[in-house]
Amino acid sequence: MAKRVAVLVGSLRRDSLNRKLFNALKGIAPASLSLEEAPIRDLALYDSDLEGAGVPPAWTTFRQQVKSADAVLFITPEYNRSLPGGLKNAIDVGSRPYGSSVWSGKPGAVISVSPGALGAFGANHALRQTFVFLDVLPMQQPEAYIGNAGKLFAEDGSISVAETRDFLLGYLEAFAKWIDRSAP
Which CATH superfamily is domain 3-182 in? Predict the structure, then answer.
């Protein structure tokens, strides 16, 4: 049975390079993984005053989706050498209320994507720093920094650079093995 992976696409833009990569990954993922987006676009900014009876429905849906997944995969751009605000907000929504974090004990991985040459290195590592507090079990190797992503996709949305496609397939296969080794 395929492992269910909640995928958080860090860019809110509908036609972002990150979303394109997510769609392309669904097409090459091994049969052992089912990649399912956990949308972050409609999450209200985290505010503890909303906990209790007034929890926004989008928070509840998001929390349930991540909690029921076997693992989490973050696909993120880099904004100002860190992760984008929408993704940070999703992390905060999932980590609350205190003691009820949906992240705790989940195997996780990060793919950072950028049109620049550094492949969103800063965002990748900023996100990994949050994993310590969240108790996400990060796959350490291989790491995935996808630079020059503007030249990566064919018109049909597939990954047109064979070396990158092969690397990402290997990355997903390694992630599947990581999930098997580290999932409770």
Answer: Flavodoxin domain (3.40.50.360)
